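Lab notebook, design round three. We kept the backbone fixed and only want residue identities now. Task for the bench partner: fill in a sequence for the structure below.
Input structure tokens:
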């Protein structure tokens, strides 16, 4: 078993694997091992579109109720009864029960009548589908106890579960659980958030603090006369700071060495120190001054941080020494989630986009928006120009956000090349934090992740403390075994090189809301977002104490322990690797390819409209493929979706965007106007979604019997956001170089969107259910085209 490294902050490597297979986390013994599970069948993990597993689910819920009731009855059995049988016989009590039952019945009837059927095979609109049985049962069982993971004192069972979930998410990505850098031990760190927005805001916050950390430490060493340290007798003693006798040497990103307190030092190298190096500085200072407790230094540092001072005071201090110093910036693609500009606003950057044609950073905010290529991936050429601009003008770059699965297009940014650029720019003296926003796409990695266990990493950490237990080359199965395209596989294989990753279990993890997560490669960074108080077991300072905790880190305070339990049981039953969750992901990816093939095959079947996918076809001969696809039976089509040719066809992930172009009877485009094209696709959308406003002409709310037979969503691509390259290519593919009419200067294309989260579609009892969906789409769109042709004539 592994032993605690020292008394103090709890780390993942301090989890003890007991001989009976359970775990000890801090003082909590008997915790189930999250990484122990047998192989399973996808069909057993969901309630099912027709509630096929209703008996299994009912048994799980009944067990949860029985255990919760027994717990209350068995705890201190000699305590008196409060709700007596006599009380239950009173008229007021019986009326209260009657009112509650009636209100509850009204609620469940309303939900049954008006709730969109997200569980259905017909639902492909937004990023949600059925939840897994383990997560539903675990949430229900834990909710009955109502733990609050803000502190282990209010969540004695669920804080350890969240700690294991954090470890498991780190393992899923491939972040090492034990490593030494410059004699600084650190583990990765992850915790559950309410959603990906909060996770993204938190990592931008942590990145901002890390960017200013070296300057804060320099100010502390110049301003503070001594560290105050408790000696063995418990008395406070002064440890004087002497910058001349005890210089603090720092290695910059280009390999050069600087003295942190050198009065002649320029500001630029202070903004360009690697994350691991800058986070190791408090430990280095403690060692230099013979201080055993590193939190003495961390606590002394707090009054000099940007968190404490605010932007105005921090920039005043900086510009006293370096008047030419500029504000740091964030770089993100135009497909960024709206939480990124929200983070920029909250953190004081400003979400406006500065220009690169001048050196006046006051003209806009501090978020560079990088346009995308024709596949909706970050444009590397524009990224290169932006980095060159920042380097030339000495504009610090806090972080680059890579979208690893965009929520509108399902596109994956070229993360491998973004990381390679960082290696290149380090040699030129430019350093930045790389964050992967994989809130949507993070669980895709399970389709390539080899099985892993907590015991394996703990044993290796004990035997080989200087070697990371995860070697990137050993983490994943081969690309052709994963179901991912070669390009997507390459990007997910480099997630473990990022500084942080946002992953939402409540998206592709199939877990109910709220369950986002932020995962850090170097867990020391959470010192920069630590706020605590004595009443929740903290120390009132940045020192978290020895008690295992998750609640003091990040933006949130109170947080449901039920979410942690849901993710825990889901990961324990459906391991996040190729033997478990990867099966779900692979089937969804294959289904996305199948749906793309069905849609493109409509171009062969229909003469009154054409379907154009947003994603490029690449090397695939779409015309030939459509002919082949139409000639195959159900099993042959499924087999085709698993070939290397189709693996590299279609969108990056499982979001499929497309437009319908209506044709005349002579098969020419019915319109050459983008605005009319948009109106037609909005008309298609109106046939396939549940209206929520009176403007639709339907009564609101819409009862279930009037729901559409298929559900999709829509989005709009604006040239101002996506760029001319993206819009031009898409419009050229839609209209095939036909001159456009009446096009506004800021062109926008309305695009239909299907999110394929259902793993069962081709395997329905009566055959491939895609055929049912496609036939309904074809019939509906054809009818709309006929109506439009009639109106035109």
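Proposed sequence:
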């Amino acid at each position: 078993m592994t032993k605690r490294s020292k008394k103090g902050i709890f780390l993942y490597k301090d989890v003890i694997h007991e001989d009976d297979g359970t775990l000890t986390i801090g003082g909590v013994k008997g915790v189930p091992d999250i990484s122990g599970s047998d192989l399973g069948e996808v069909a057993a993990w969901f309630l099912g579109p027709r509630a096929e597993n209703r008996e299994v689910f009912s048994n799980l819920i009944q067990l949860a109720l029985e255990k919760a009731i027994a717990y209350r009855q068995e705890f201190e059995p000699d305590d008196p009864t409060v709700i007596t049988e006599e009380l239950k016989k009173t008229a007021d009590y019986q009326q209260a029960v009657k009112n509650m039952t009636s209100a509850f019945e009204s609620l469940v009837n309303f939900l049954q009548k008006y709730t969109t059927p997200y569980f259905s095979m017909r639902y492909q609109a937004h990023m949600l589908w059925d939840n897994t049985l383990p997560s539903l049962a675990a949430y229900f069982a834990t909710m009955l106890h109502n733990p609050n993971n803000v502190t282990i004192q209010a969540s004695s069972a669920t804080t350890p579960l969240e700690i294991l979930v954090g470890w498991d998410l780190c393992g899923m990505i491939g972040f090492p659980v034990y490593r030494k850098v410059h004699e600084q031990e650190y583990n990765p760190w992850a915790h559950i958030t309410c959603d990906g927005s909060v996770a993204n805001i938190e990592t931008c916050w942590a990145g901002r603090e890390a960017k200013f950390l070296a300057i804060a430490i320099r100010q502390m060493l110049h301003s503070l006369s001594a560290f105050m340290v408790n000696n063995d007798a418990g008395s406070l003693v002064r440890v004087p700071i002497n910058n001349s006798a005890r210089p603090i040497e720092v290695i910059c990103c280009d390999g050069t060495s600087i003295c942190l307190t050198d009065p002649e030092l320029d500001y630029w190298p202070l903004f360009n120190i690697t994350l691991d190096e800058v986070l190791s500085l408090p430990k280095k200072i403690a060692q230099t001054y013979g201080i055993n407790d590193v939190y003495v230094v961390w606590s002394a540092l707090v009054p000099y941080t940007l968190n404490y001072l605010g932007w105005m005071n921090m920039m005043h201090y900086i510009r006293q020494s370096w008047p030419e110093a500029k504000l740091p910036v964030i770089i993100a693609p135009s497909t960024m989630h709206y939480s990124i500009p929200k983070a920029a606003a909250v953190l004081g950057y400003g979400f406006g986009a500065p220009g690169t044609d001048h050196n006046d950073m006051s003209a806009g905010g501090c978020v560079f928006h990088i346009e995308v290529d024709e596949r909706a991936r970050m444009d590397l050429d524009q990224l290169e120009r932006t980095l060159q601009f920042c380097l030339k003008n000495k504009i610090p770059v806090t972080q680059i956000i890579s979208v690893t699965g965009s929520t509108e297009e399902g596109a994956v940014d070229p993360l491998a090349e973004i990381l390679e650029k960082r290696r290149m720019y380090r040699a030129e003296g430019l350093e930045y934090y790389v964050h992967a926003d994989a809130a949507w796409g993070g669980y895709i990695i399970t389709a390539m992740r080899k099985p892993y266990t907590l015991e394996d990493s703990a044993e290796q950490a004990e035997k080989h403390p200087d070697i990371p237990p995860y070697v990137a080359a050993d983490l994943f199965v081969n690309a052709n075994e994963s179901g991912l395209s070669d390009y997507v596989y390459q990007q997910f294989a480099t997630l473990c090189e990022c500084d942080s990753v946002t992953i939402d279990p409540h998206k592709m993890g199939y877990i109910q809301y709220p369950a986002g997560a932020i995962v850090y490669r170097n867990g020391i960074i959470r010192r920069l977002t630590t706020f605590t108080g004595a009443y929740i077991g903290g120390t009132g300072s940045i020192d978290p104490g020895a008690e295992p905790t998750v609640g003091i880190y990040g933006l949130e305070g109170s947080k449901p322990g039920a979410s942690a339990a849901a993710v825990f049981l889901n990961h324990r039953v459906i391991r996040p690797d190729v033997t478990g969750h990867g099966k779900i992901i692979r089937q969804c990816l294959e289904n996305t390819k199948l749906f793309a093939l069905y849609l493109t095959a409509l171009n062969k079947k229909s003469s009154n409209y054409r379907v154009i996918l947003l994603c490029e076809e690449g090397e695939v001969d779409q015309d030939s493929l459509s002919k082949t696809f139409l000639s195959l039976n159900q099993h042959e089509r499924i087999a085709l979706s698993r070939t290397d040719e189709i693996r590299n066809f279609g969108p990056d992930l499982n979001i499929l965007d497309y437009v319908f172009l209506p044709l005349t009877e002579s098969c020419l485009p019915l319109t050459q106007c983008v605005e009319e094209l948009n109106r037609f696709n909005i008309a298609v959308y109106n046939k396939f979604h549940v209206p929520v406003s009176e403007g639709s002409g339907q009564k609101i709310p819409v009862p279930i019997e009037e729901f559409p037979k298929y559900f999709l969503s829509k989005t709009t691509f604006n040239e101002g956001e996506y760029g001319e390259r993206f819009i031009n290519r898409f419009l050229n593919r839609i209209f095939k170089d036909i001159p456009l009419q009446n096009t506004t200067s800021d062109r926008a294309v309305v695009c239909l969107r299907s999110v394929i989260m259902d793993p069962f579609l081709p395997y329905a009892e009566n055959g491939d259910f895609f055929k049912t969906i496609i036939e309904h789409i074809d019939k509906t769109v054809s009818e709309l085209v006929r109506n439009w042709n009639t109106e035109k004539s």
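Keep this in mind before ordering anything: DSSP finds 27 helices and 20 strands in the chain.
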